[in-house]
Write a structure and sequence with these properties.
Distance between the termini: 37 Å
Helix content: 10-25%
Number of helices: 2
Strand order of the largest sheet: 1-2-4-3
Strand content: 25-35%
Order of helices and strands: HHEEEE
């Protein structure tokens, strides 16, 4: 497990992810920018990887956190199940 998950400071606001998670999300966003055909990627952070996702399409995740990297907007949240 990453050190920040064990000893990290909790977010200052309950509606915001920890700075370390946001940094990992920025890294994931850069990976998505390098693969223009992909729209969603798991945010990798230790044994709980896959529980948070980053997407360029807000309809693919459930969450309200937005992140802008290199002028492109991304959304952080839980993977959204397909709706029928």
């Amino acid at each position: 497990m990453s050190d920040f998950l064990r000893k990290g400071e909790p977010p200052k606001e309950t509606s915001t992810y920890a700075p370390e998670v946001l940094e990992l999300a920025k890294q994931a966003a850069k990976e998505l920018l390098g693969n223009p055909n992909d729209k969603i990627i798991s945010i990798k952070f230790g044994h709980r990887s896959g529980e948070l996702w980053l997407s360029s399409d807000p309809t693919l995740v459930v969450g309200s956190e937005e992140l802008t990297v290199d002028g492109k907007r991304f959304y952080i949240g839980l993977f959204k199940a397909e709706q029928k």
